[in-house]
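Incident log, structure service

09:12 report received: a user says their structure output differs between two submissions of the same chain.
09:20 pulled the input from the user's history:
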Amino acid sequence: MWRESKNKLVTDNFEQVTREFGDFKSYNVLRVKTTTISPQDHPAAIMGSGIHTELVCKARFSKKHDAHVGLHLIKETEGSQYIVAAWNFQAEP
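09:34 re-ran on a clean worker, output below:
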């Protein structure tokens, strides 16, 4: 249930961004960092154990040109799907 509500929140926020900035056109990955947090390290990890990937992209939209989008993705195992644990968005001037 947490995964479904988190993904719905991300979807709702992205829809708000596309209303303001227009349709999503393309992206370029600027930076990726992947870290595995073991269950033993879990108490120190705010978002839990698993595979954490931080991704920063430069996205292009149809109305206002470029924006930086940062995503913090988590998956429990190598074979499981990522969920978006957090994200941020910053329009370029």
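09:41 both user submissions now match this output. Likely a transient worker issue. Closing.
09:42 reviewer note: Residues 2-91 form a domain with the Nuclear Transport Factor 2; Chain: A, fold (CATH 3.10.450). The chain has one domain: 2-91.
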